[in-house]
Write a structure and sequence with these properties.
This protein has helices at 2-25, 44-59; strands at residues 30-33, 36-39. The radius of gyration is 13 Å and the shape is globular. It contains two helices and two strands. The chain has a two-stranded antiparallel ribbon. A hairpin with a 2-residue loop joins strand 1 and strand 2 (36-39). By secondary structure, it is mostly helical. The longest helix is centred in the N-terminal third of the chain and has 24 residues, at 2-25.
């Protein structure tokens, strides 16, 4: 249904906002592209950490959270 899709979009945008706001507050450049993020290599581990934090904060658990590194 449309409500389910809108709910999933809200979750996705909340997670993305959490990540973007974190890096902006810390004067780091981060670019979002669909469900991915582009960041300096030196910030890669921090991005993974913040992605997990964002997922947990928005969803309430890290269960079924899969973070895949792609180039």
């Amino acid at each position: 249904s449309d409500r389910i899709g809108l709910g999933l979009q809200k979750i996705d945008s909340s997670i993305a906002s959490y990540i973007i706001e974190y890096f902006c507050r810390n004067d780091e450049v981060v670019l979002s592209m669909h469900d991915s993020f582009i960041i300096k290599k030196s910030q890669e581990d921090k991005l993974r950490e913040i992605m997990l934090q964002a997922y947990e904060a928005v969803v309430g658990s890290s269960f079924n959270c899969k973070i895949v590194k792609e180039y």
